[in-house]
Amino acid sequence: MVPLRPLGTSDILGGALTALRRYGGTLCGALLLGQLMAGLLVTAAAGAATLASLSPRSGSRVFVWTLFPAAGLFLLFTCALATALIAALLRPAVLGRPVTVPGLLLSALPRTPAVLGTQLLALLVAAGPFAVLVALGVPPLAALPLLPVALWLGVLSSLAPTAAGYEGLGPVAALRRSAQLVRGAWWRALAVTAPAVVFTAAAGYALLLWFGLPGALSALVLLPAFPQLPAGLLYVDRRIRREHLAEAFAADA
């Protein structure tokens, strides 16, 4: 259970680890089940495209060219589903209530499209200007001054996916909501989200280095949700500080 009071940075990071210990199995089970459903759809789509081709030779090409974009969509879906699962888990985690794999997944799936749209829009806002300059032929080194702007925008929108999942907002409204909540606490948001991203990247690289492809697949299942746990608790903290969310949680408790 997370304290119903304004949270310090250590409370948020420690609360994320505590939530991971308590709900990690349920969270990974729901994420794995959702990935399995998406994987079956990806395979079915690639197979249907192959069957629709006119010859075995062209069929194999169609299968490959269909599978790669579908795999990219699968990765995007995984990240969005992980965030939606965290958003659905926030209230039970704060109140210390049990959750089940089917219940968590059923709560998260309807929110996943909005979360995915929010994540893509946040990425476009943060990295778009830099990517456009590079695409226009500007040398990457010449575009480096835009990186601090991208970092600022990225942190400003860091709570948008959680807001989309928790409040049911659309992508644009979720970005506005994140900017509203992060305003006045930008450095604190960076201090909370950056260690989680670094830890996740290091853990994924270690799994890949030590176990090869099985490690990479394990990282895909186990790690996407972790960076969203501190972001979700930071979202709760900002609403406790600014909107008295603790009173609502206390009434539920």
Q: Can you give a write-up of this model?
A:
The protein contains ten helices and no strands. It has helices at about 10-50, 55-95, 100-110, 110-135, 145-155, 160-165, 170-180, 185-220, 230-245, 245-250. α2 crosses α9. The longest helix is centred in the N-terminal third of the chain and has 44 residues, at about 10-50. The radius of gyration is 20 Å and the shape is globular. The N and C termini lie close together (about 10 Å). The mean pLDDT is about 80. Keywords: Membrane, Transmembrane, Transmembrane helix. It comes from Streptomyces katrae. This is Integral membrane protein.
**Low-confidence stretches at least 5 residues in length (pLDDT < 50)?**
none
One letter per element, helices H and strands E, the order comes to HHHHHHHHHH
Structural class: mainly alpha
Alpha carbon gyration radius: 20 Å
Q: Beta-sheet strand percentage? A: under 5%
Tally of alpha and pi helices: 10
Number of strands: 0
Tell me the span between the first and last alpha carbons.
11 Å
The percent of residues in helical segments reads over 70%
Total number of distinct structural domains: 1
Rounded average pLDDT: 82
Shape: globular
Major sheet summary line: none
